[in-house]
Amino acid sequence: MKQFSQLFSTLETSNKTNDKISALVHYFSTATEEDKLWLIALFTGKRPKRPVKTNFLKLWAMEISEIPEWLFLESYASVGDLGETIALLLPPSENSIDQSLSVWMKEIIALHDKTDEEKKEFVTHAWNNLDTQERLIFNKLIGGSFRIGVSHKLLVNALSKYSGIDENALMHAIIGKWKVEETQFSELINGENINTDASKLYPFCLAYPLENELEKLGEVKDWQIEYKWDGIRGQIIKRNEEIFIWSRGEELVTEQFPELVENIKKISGNFVLDGEILAIKEGQVLNFNDLQERLNRKNVSKKMMEELTNYLPNKKYAIHWKLDSTKYSYIDFKGYEAGKKPSGISGKPRLFYDRNKPFTRKVKFFDTYKSDKEITIPTYYVIPKSEGKIIENLKRNQIKFKELQSDSLITVESYKIVDFKTVKNPYEGHYLHFDTQVSSELKTKKFSK
């Protein structure tokens, strides 16, 4: 873990690409085959499922640190990361373990079949034998939240410098489906493990910063410019009459876009399309937020498909929801009986959870919301000519609008804010408003051309 910890520290603290590449090349040159394989897996999002609930990690850390829950939560709020909070709150380690990354990963994966007590013994033993930086990495690995600011391109660049293998070949080799347990490092980077199933995607054609000055690129006529659309980067694959839609995060989102699947079925042959997925109505690109609602859904209803491309005038749409307290189900809540015992620091009574007194209770689970505020989409909006910034944004986003050809009297529904509430404490320096109340009235106003 120490070798991986040093690499992690360099990558997290350096903002120079060359330094990061050098650190990765050094790791590939000195680490074991298994450790190199696990690094690629972790850096490409192939981390194993979380074997320990994060709430248990919190409870065990509170017990060892002998701090009350309110102080832990205050610390968590200040730090912003659970793994780092625990690493900072734990007392200094008493011993040291120098196990390789691959050994740690095997032991972490093996925890899935262990009891809660066995998991606790493993975690607390690790905490007592790792320094703060190693604990941070361990917490992220065991909590299933390991991420690092290293792009696939940077990783492949380092692998290419280490191995001498072409970057495109390496990208194609490490992307997609493969398992650490069934793969050898040399086989992986040499492309011997490339998945040949029909869903296999290609490296995404992404834009990267220019490495040379603009003047060195040659004539403008020799280049093709692509518009930067605000959508979801995707790759549509059709092979052997099967259709797959991948997101940039290498997640299959085929079921979220059934209308795309139907259209792709009409095109003959095998092919791969790499581009931006957009929601379009009447030739105009809709808001990204509307498109994003499709993600993380197992099924997309016919109503949702219609609403995405048919926001119609004079039709009501919900804009605010509240919890429906009349509808709920019951779920099992597992915990430990709370008690008091003398603190090892102050000698005063402190809260602790008795691991010898587990309990399971049925609790109500409220997960149904109902709309409590709706709006009716107007036939059109009238924007005064003085609102230049709004007009510029409409043009920039290619939203259709018409300019008045002459001074006009138009009857409009005019809104104004009559009341609102403000939070007592600022959030990131801002006092947020809520429960805004508006009034409206019909009036005839003069608008200049």
Strand tally: 11
Unreliable residue runs: none
Main structural class = alpha+beta
**Widest sheet: strand order?**
2-1-3
Describe the protein in words:
- This protein is of the alpha+beta class and 449 residues long.
- It has 16 helices and 11 strands.
- The protein has helices spanning 2-13, 17-30, 33-43, 54-65, 69-79, 82-89, 101-110, 116-127, 132-142, 152-163, 167-174, 185-189, 258-265, 288-292, 302-309, 388-396; strands spanning 232-239, 242-247, 271-277, 280-281, 284-285, 316-323, 329-342, 349-365, 369-376, 408-422, 433-447.
- The strands form 5 sheets. It has a 3-stranded antiparallel beta sheet.
- The model has no long low-confidence stretch (mean pLDDT 84).
Question: What's a concise summary of this model?
Answer:
By secondary structure, this protein is an alpha+beta fold. It is 35% helix and 23% strand. The chain has helices at residues 2-13, 17-30, 33-43, 54-65, 69-79, 82-89, 101-110, 116-127, 132-142, 152-163, 167-174, 185-189, 258-265, 288-292, 302-309, 388-396, and strands at residues 232-239, 242-247, 271-277, 280-281, 284-285, 316-323, 329-342, 349-365, 369-376, 408-422, 433-447.
Helix-strand blueprint:
Elements: H1 2-13, H2 17-30, H3 33-43, H4 54-65, H5 69-79, H6 82-89, H7 101-110, H8 116-127, H9 132-142, H10 152-163, H11 167-174, H12 185-189, E1 232-239, E2 242-247, H13 258-265, E3 271-277, E4 280-281, E5 284-285, H14 288-292, H15 302-309, E6 316-323, E7 329-342, E8 349-365, E9 369-376, H16 388-396, E10 408-422, E11 433-447
Antiparallel strand pairs: 1-2, 1-3, 4-5, 6-9, 7-8, 10-11
Helix pairs in contact: 1-2, 2-10, 5-6, 6-9, 10-11
